[in-house]
Amino acid sequence: MLRYLDDLILYDNMWDDDNSLGPKEVHNYLTRVMYNRRKKFNPLWSSLVLGGVKNGKKYLGTVTMIGVHYEDDHLATGFGNHLARPILRDEWKEDLSFEDGVKLLEKCMRVLLYRDRSAVNKLQIAKITEEGVKVYDPYSLKTFWNFKAFQNPTVGAEGSW
């Protein structure tokens, strides 16, 4: 993927026209890459999320390994698309502060963590603005595993596998 992006940036810079690609253009390019790889039966086994700001306009888009793409105000991939997106639809709003956005993200990640016991509770936040990208230090989510249902999850289960 990095090779594709490096080639795109090199090609864009060769024009030397003081015009640079924005997040929407890069997202469209990645959509074509993923679809063309799928068409040749050689897909890149990744889902991509691309965000950015250009000329004051925010952009957030996603593309799957088969080239399915869309843009929205909030995105998730994989299992998060099924469990986190409903939470985001209910609680996200346009004027959400950065701190409230982090709390909402932590809530989504906690739900995902509790449903996938092989997951790790480490998280890293990045903030994208027109000035650039700020990546914060990784940290661990606070979790509570002493719920009675977690102690013996098969209590009350009928039958056997």
Automatic annotation (TrEMBL):
InterPro entries: Ntn_hydrolases_N, Proteasome_alpha, Proteasome_sua/b
Keyword Protease listed: yes
Domain of life: Eukaryota
Keywords per UniProt: Hydrolase, Protease, Proteasome
Keyword Nucleus: no
Gene Ontology biological-process entries: proteolysis involved in protein catabolic process
One example GO MF annotation: peptidase activity
SUPFAM superfamilies: N-terminal nucleophile aminohydrolases (Ntn hydrolases)
Gene3D superfamilies registered for this protein in UniProt: Glutamine Phosphoribosylpyrophosphate, subunit 1, domain 1
Residues annotated as transmembrane: none
GO cellular component entries: proteasome core complex
Pfam families: Proteasome
UniProt name for this protein: Protease
Organism from which the protein derives: Lithospermum erythrorhizon (Purple gromwell)
Organism phylogeny: Eukaryota, Viridiplantae, Streptophyta, Embryophyta, Tracheophyta
